[in-house]
Amino acid sequence: MCETTASIVEICFPEQIFTRERVALFPLAYIEDPKMNRIMQWRDINTENGFKQLSFSLSSEPIQGSYKIVILNQSGVKKQHPFTVEEFVLPKFEVRVKVPKAISIKDEKMNVTVCGVYTYGKPVPGHVNISICHKSQDFSFKEKNECKEVSYQLDNRGCITQEENITMFNLNKTYIRAQHFHVNAKVIEEGTGLEFSGSGTTKIEKIITKLIFVKAESHFRHGIPFLVKVRLEDLQGTPIPNEQVFFKVQSGYSHATTTDNHGLAEFSINTSRIGGHSLSITVYHKEEYVCGNFPCMAEEYGVAHHVAYSVYSISKSYIYLEKEAGILPCSQSHTVRAHFILRGTALRVLKELSFYYLVMAQGKIIQTGSHTHHLEARDPGNLCKQPQNSKSIFHPWKILQIPVFSHLGFPVSILIHYHLLPFPLAQEKGNFTLEIPVEFGMAPVAKLLIYAILPDEEVIADSAKFEIEKCLLNKVDLSFKPAQSLPASQAHLHVTASPQSLCGLRAVDQSVLLLKPEAELSPSWIYNLPEMQHKDSKPSSHQLPEDEDRCVWPRDKALKGVAHPLRKENEKDVYEYLDKLAQNG
Question: Which of 80, 94, 401, 534 is deepest in the core (most CB within 10 A)?
């Protein structure tokens, strides 16, 4: 449906948006009223350039309620779209209330701004009645509501900004479990007495600052630096620059760094010496503080915790893609940097290694490519190297007891001695970049997979997900000249689009959009349509093999006698990267 008014219903068939067809035939389209009566129908509808517009006038006193537009395509599938017919009075103006997102329990004043604005943008003359209510809940879940009433005259901008005293609410009470302010403002128009209301909510926090992880992945790779990025904010969500924050790794050493102009702080963790399969990170502002009293009402500074787990690899070889937050714009190239570390067989037998990558979007592979890395020449007999003055972190000998069953029918245990390497394997590190063109067909989400197959058939891989701008293939621009004019005067409308484009225009009062802003046509609305959604590429459960146990190799072909640990819980392997790639979202 293109437009609904009190008297006319217009229908359009944007088939080209979904199937890219320029001509389509719909055998039947009809409208049903709330009582399921078919009040209008059309047959054998041909689209033009993928579109067809039809009009239907409602009666002077139509039935109010929910109507349906039903369309039948050539395969017999029905599609329907609801719209509502109701009697309403368009709002003459709106009331905007601006209050802080949050304040501290120590604050004594709170800024409140109220504006009355006509739908065409001009200020409303009049006055405002403001109700500031403190809502709280104690530890027995008993609720309390206290209010303060004030009135002000609106200024020539239709607004009023006041710093309201809130000391009478005593925010620092020890028995309060949760509390917030609810501000309601009623604007009365001068001369008519017409009233409209608006509201806002403010949280009351005991935490002075917040630390938010901007970048901290769920898994790390031994030997590849793990990058952590945090943002320091105040209670309003405003970044705090030039402040020290502290990073603590594995309950060990701390490192201090200073936030930049955007409140961001970065820290790179050397994972080469991480012995376990998990990495614990704590970031805090000012100092680590533990309140000794309960209930605790002391002010606190931001603290954030994160735990990352290792990626499983038999040879400890990895590939890693740098991930950047944000939405990628269409019709540009995005550079992705890949880091790798190779150990074991690959260094002995390979002179070069190829990395393959693919990009998936809308459930399809849309881009593929490869990168070849030339390895350094090495002594084939020396895959391992003992660093000077290094001490082994492994026990030199272990005894493994394995229960087996003899032909006599009773269990027999055998003892096997094996040697763990007392020094690290030789390794080769490197990085390279991939240029990924951001195309229209990649929106709203694209996934990148990179992998390499090592000589011993081990696969190393990584994947990344990118949010793509919700852009449309055809560009259109619309502007009025002049942008502002008096009633009953003429205005010129300028429309720009690609040659031979079919353009639809709609002109409505701004008040109509205030009623249901979520129904306004936008790229997000288009991408949320069922026809624009794609299904998982992952097979259904009955198509998967019965045995989904992870494969564990008994030994590395290049290093016989060296034992490899089993995959730990929460460790991620290549199967999971491929499985995640096939899933929707």
Answer: 94
Listed in sequence order, the DSSP H helices in 495-544 are: 510-515, 523-527
- Measured CA to CA, the distance from residue 476 to residue 3 in angstroms comes to 19
> Do 102 and 188 belong together in one domain?
yes
pLDDT reported for residue 545: 53
**Average confidence (pLDDT) per 10 residues, the chain, 585 residues:** 45 47 76 93 84 84 92 89 80 90 90 91 93 88 90 95 92 81 95 92 88 92 92 90 91 83 92 86 78 62 91 90 87 92 81 92 90 77 48 37 42 42 66 92 90 90 91 84 82 87 78 69 79 58 50 44 61 76 58
The C-alpha angle with vertex 266 and arms to 260 and 268, in degrees rounded to 5, equals: 155
Give the structural domain span for 303. Answer: 209-310
Q: What are the counts of helices (DSSP H) followed by strands (DSSP E) for the chain?
A: 5, 35
- φ, ψ of residue 209 to 5 degrees: the values are -130, 160
Contact predicate 462/572, CB 8 Å: no
Closest CA to 42 of 59, 33, 29: 29
Identify the pLDDT of residue 8.
Answer: 52
Looking at residue 9, its pLDDT comes to 54
pLDDT of 564 reads 54
- For residue 185, what pLDDT is reported? 96
Answer yes or no: do 114 and 146 share one domain.
Answer: yes
Name the helix (H) or strand (E) containing 18.
Answer: helix 15-19
Instruction: Tell whether the torsion through CA atoms of 541, 544, 546 and 548 is positive or negative.
Output: negative
The span from the first CA to the last CA of the chain, in angstroms, equals 28
* Residues 564, 548: Cα–Cα separation, whole Å: 21
Clarify whether residues 227 and 360 are in a common domain. Answer: no
- Cβ distance 313 to 458 under 8 Å? yes
180 occurs within a structural domain: yes
Number of folded domains that form the chain: 4
CA 9 to chain CA centroid, Å, is 37
Instruction: For the chain, give the number of residues.
Output: 585
Q: Give the residue from 499, 360, 497 showing the smallest Cα distance to 441.
A: 360
Judge if 355 and 454 occupy the same domain: yes
Question: What pTM, to 2 d.p., does this model score?
Answer: 0.69
Say how far apart CA 310 and CA 567 lie, in whole Å: 10
- Out of 205, 231, 247, a domain closes at 205
Is residue 530 assigned to a domain?
A: no
In a shared domain, residues 340 and 303: no
What phi and psi values does residue 441 have, to the nearest 5 degrees? -70, -5
- Chain-centroid distance of CA 447 in Å reads 14
Tokens of 167: 């000391």
Whether 356 and 365 have beta carbons less than 8 Å apart is answered as: no
Point out which residues pair with 337 in neighbouring strands. 433
Question: Which amino acid, residue 499?
Answer: P
pLDDT at 298: 64
Place of tokens 């030789």: 426
Say if residues 445 and 463 touch (Cβ distance below 8 Å): no
In the chain, the largest separation of any two C-alpha atoms, in whole Å, equals: 106
Rounded CA separation 269/394 (Å):
23
Q: What distance in Å separates the CA atoms of residue 515 and residue 558, rounded to the nearest whole number?
A: 70
Tell me the three state secondary structure of residue 505: coil
- Do both 65 and 188 map to the same domain? no
d(CA 468, CA 446): 7
Kindly provide the b/e burial profile for residues 189-202, where b requires at least 16 CB atoms within 10 angstroms of the residue's own CB. Answer: beeeeeebebebeb
